[in-house]
UniProtKB/TrEMBL annotation:
Name assigned to this protein: Cysteine desulfurase
InterPro entries: Aminotrans_V_dom, Aminotrans_V_PyrdxlP_BS, Cys_dSase_SufS, PyrdxlP-dep_Trfase, PyrdxlP-dep_Trfase_major, PyrdxlP-dep_Trfase_small
Requisite cofactors: pyridoxal 5'-phosphate
Protein purpose: Catalyzes the removal of elemental sulfur and selenium atoms from L-cysteine, L-cystine, L-selenocysteine, and L-selenocystine to produce L-alanine.
Entry's family note: Belongs to the class-V pyridoxal-phosphate-dependent aminotransferase family. Csd subfamily.
Reactions mediated catalytically: (sulfur carrier)-H + L-cysteine = (sulfur carrier)-SH + L-alanine
Pfam family of the protein (one): Aminotran_5
Biological processes, Gene Ontology terms: cysteine metabolic process
Residue ranges constituting the Aminotransferase class V domain according to the UniProt record: 26-394
Amino acid sequence: KASFDVEAVRRDFPILSEQVNGKPLVYLDNGASTHKPLAVMEAMDGYYRHMHSNVHRGSHTLGDRATMAFEGARETVRRFLNAGSTREIIWTRGTTEAINVVANGLAPRLRPGDEILVSHMEHHSNIVPWQMVAERTGAKVVPVQVTPEGELDLDSFNSLLGERTRILAITHVSNVLGTVNPVAALIEQARARGVITVLDGAQAVPHFKPDVQALGCDFYAFSSHKLFGPTGIGVLYGREQLLEEMPPFQGGGEMIERVSFERTTWSTLPYKFEAGTPAIAEAVGLAAAIDYLDRLDRRAMEAAENALLVRANELVATVPGMSVIGTAVRKMPVMSFKIEGLHPSDIGTLLDQQGIAVRTGHHCAMPLMDFYGVPGTARASFAFYNTLEEVDTLFAALQKIQRLFA
Ligand code: PMP
């Protein structure tokens, strides 16, 4: 494999050649959703042209092709996560639904006063499902504090992991701060106390490959659309024994073994959690995205992404009044920032006029915004297809905006 050739990679992503407001698109909103390589579009197109039918019906050739493609995609995801078995790979609509499946499935284990440990830097999708389950069961959602730098406060973690802790649900990488949490160590401590561990991998998978067996987690959730695959599908990895013990999330076709009005029994894993006709073409598209990433040089790609963050950090000082929120030692290429005298949403609008896409607002992490005492931030989030020139373009635009409007 050659070293990382970003210009070659960019040619695989047609949308990156788009013009926006008369300017070449500079897409720095990868934390919200990533773009798709041609390989993904072609795989989905090929699926619809040559294979589409419903899956698991087995009565004709197209049905067999669709089932092969769909179950092959599950195996691709299993390999990506290094899970032990495809029985542990559940298709969901995304990270949000995956966490809801787990929260609902673990509810029968919770008693009044039990504690679900989350962190102050969680996305709402790793807070609200737990609050809903807490409401039903009398359990409590307890947040681990973060430090001003945006790292998990380990003293807070150590003092809160206690007798009543039943579940630890924590993000692998923060969507606002970019912080990579020391999850393997946290999981080890939690498991030693019999605590069930759930990782939100939505912002980790676009940057590195998680190994669920090495991490030792019980559950791992991610979304395809943040991993260069299509929208509408995501993955829940779950430890087989726990999945066996959990009730299904939804009822319907596909998830049953036998139905009668006297008694209905559930299908085997993973189908027990997959009621109804699944997102078949999307599963094929996600597998194509993973295969595409596997053809790239991972180490070179990770180094190139880090170089983007290093360059961005160097340029912060060139914009008067600019400050970064989230300066963890281990962080992914995500930069949340504010500029004195400018509202984040105005920064977003002014950058868009220059063809530069960033996200502004609370990033579905209101408790974290409250912690920093800001209504929101502007956030530039990078992917491997971004260039150093694009980082320079962002900062040139920020300098201009600061000069004219702050
Ligand atoms: N967790 C994190 C850390 C995220 O960044 C996101 C998406 N912004 C989600 C969960 C939710 O993902 P989805 O909307 O695809 O379900």
